[in-house]
């Protein structure tokens, strides 16, 4: 049984390496060796944030007194935003590690990766969510084919006028298309990451609380490059960042290609364990994007 599981994981890895479109794998336009301080600033929990290796790595610490977080110096209206994360290991029930885009002010837009901690060797859950004009409840949850606490993995968000794509190690796991009159992000957003106490909801519906005896919990971050349309001081309308002259808005990024679509369908069929569009207890009438 372990042999078959290992074989399956290796086969999936080989499929990724041999078939992922170079537009994502090569990271066109993505700056290399960018330090934390070039693009980001610590926003809270300053005493719980450590910068290591000349700014090539940042660790966020969580104990009973505080967690920590950072955000991009600039706001963006489109782009491909990636970071490498190793989430806290051990008994982390109730602890949330987050990487996301968010606007400021009322009726906010937000695009979320959230890692929901767990206890007793149970796997970490990856949750994605969207807030559009202040309305959320668009959760999708996944188990992963690897242990995200053991090694760094790359998590990416493509946001352009045509679609939002969530990537895990260059595999598209979720796509939200801007079509058929759906709600869609319309405000400039900053890129943020944080480590915080979510034990009122994150694990077992809030029944599992943080066991502080296992603190501090540590989340590790690398790769602080940002590829996006900087909207600061130009306009509050993200339409200013819609030009196809930006490579992340060009034709190759307006839809998944055939190989990406196959990986997307395979991943969701095998690893998704919750989809808000299938939750009739939450919605008597499904949101427009679910049809």
Question: Your description of this structure?
Answer:
There is one protein chain. The protein has 291 residues and is an alpha+beta fold. It has four helices and 16 strands. The strands form two sheets. An eight-stranded antiparallel beta sheet has the order 1-4-13-6-7-8-9-16. Strands 2, 3, 5, 10, 11, 12, 14 and 15 form an eight-stranded antiparallel beta sheet that branches. A hairpin with a 2-residue loop joins strand 11 and strand 12 (171-177). The longest helix is centred in the first third of the chain and has 18 residues, at 2-19. The protein is globular and about 50 Å long. The protein starts with a helix and ends in a 16-residue tail after the last strand.
List the helices and strands and how they pair.
Layout: H1 2-19, H2 22-25, H3 36-39, E1 40-44, E2 49-52, E3 57-62, E4 68-72, E5 76-86, E6 95-102, E7 110-116, E8 125-131, E9 140-142, E10 153-159, E11 163-168, E12 171-177, E13 190-197, E14 217-222, E15 227-230, H4 258-271, E16 272-275
Antiparallel strand pairs: 1-4, 2-3, 3-14, 4-13, 5-10, 5-14, 5-15, 6-7, 6-13, 7-8, 8-9, 9-16, 10-11, 11-12
Function: Catalyzes xyloglucan endohydrolysis (XEH) and/or endotransglycosylation (XET). Cleaves and religates xyloglucan polymers, an essential constituent of the primary cell wall, and thereby participates in cell wall construction of growing tissues.
Subcellular location: Secreted, Cell wall; Secreted, Extracellular space, Apoplast
Signal peptide: 1-22
